Amino acid sequence: MDNINHFRRVSLIWLVASVILTPIVVFVLAPGMPPGNGSVEASGQVVDNTVLLGVSTPIALVILVYFIYAIIAFREREPAGVVLDGPPIRGHSGVQTTWLVVTTITVLFLAGYGTARMLADGSGGGQGPNPIAKPDGANQALQVQVIAQQWKFTYRWPSYGGMETNRLELPANRLIEFHVTSLDVIHSFWAYQLAVKADANPGVDNIAYVTTKGPLTFNIHCAELCGVWHGYMYEKGNVVAPSQFGTWIKQQEQQNAPSTKQLGPYQKQYEPDPTRRGG
Amino acid sequence: MSAIGKRMLGLALGTLVVCVALGLYVGLYLTNVPGSAAAVRTAAGTQLYLGTVPAAEGTDPHPTWVSYYSVDANSQHWKHVTTYTLPANTLVHVTIYNYDGQSGLRNPYIAQVQGTVGSNFMLDGKPTQFVGPDTASHIFAIPELGVSVPVEGVADNAKNPCANAPCSLSTAHTTTTFTFKTGARGLYRWQCFVPCAAGFIQGLGGPMQTVGYMDGFIKLV
Lengths: 279, 221
Known about the structure:
With 279 residues, chain A is of the alpha+beta class.
């Protein structure tokens, strides 16, 4: 038996590695994490990912440092002798207490942090028809209904006479209230750079909030396997300056005026109820 | 030849046969592409003639499925393909003979024509922008090109309806014509947006989910 204090050695190596690597992960790697900074919620998700990485880096280092240390320090040395079993493991109240306290604090912190972040604005995810995490100013949000069907998205604008459009343009620096629904099967509205990913279920009004930032082009995908052309359910949307949005929406109102008359009244959800053979 | 030699020869021959069979299976699978039909170039421009029927031919693997066909305007020869080859960046005149009934739309928004020259189409010779959401039979849409044209269905009480492909122009039908400009070279999907698959849940299974019936590709060359 040697008299080396392995615990102290491992702890010291872990401490040094954590002090060096954690800031590198937090300040160098994490800012490049998806989904970027296309909206307030997207930036919030990057912060959340940064916090998670910052917390998990020292935890991962415990495992890695101990693993590598054990391979080096406890390897069989030449000449190979008789393999002896190690000393029996006995309880160590200090280690047990430390483990319990550290893991409890970590888990409770992450649970509290995650809950607080989600309650702030829903973090871009769909909250169902009765959201509990409403951002400030939700009453003044621009409502946009996202209607999914096999295999495209269309958008309905209750603030603009209930018209429907093929494309999605949004004003910059504005709180948007998406009402995501489907006409047929389960889809998912995923506006990647805006950090919105909300299920589109028939007969359900799934509300998701997002606050846009400056102008950008974002990708829209369906994120739920929905049939043969699911992979083609892809398009681009734009966040534009408010004045540009005003011009675009007026053009759309004029262009779609005939079809708006044909549409039924705006509803928050639609049942998949074709009039004839498709029932 | 010794007994062991015969066994080895049998084993080698058996392995060879299995390998050839596997190679053929994979090779045929990889080289099997759906048939296609090309647009016809005439003095009046590039023409594409299509037909839609309530049910495919009796010899089709799915003789009860609703389907699009390519139609030869002169010989009235019908070809069961849904991949259409068109010239890129060109005006294409499309004619759709529809023999199918009225299905109805879930989303009335797509009863409006979009993406065609003049923002309209001709329905039985009349300039039209809409069909009735309840009387639509099909849609011919190329979403990536922004083209979406509704196809009016044959009335339920029409005389002399056609049941299966191929259908004669003497049977009840509607004629939809429109012109659109194709885009850059490439492969684009087209599809029907009407839940017209009779006998399937919500009208969206079977022919709506199978390339070769109510959807396919546009090859721009």
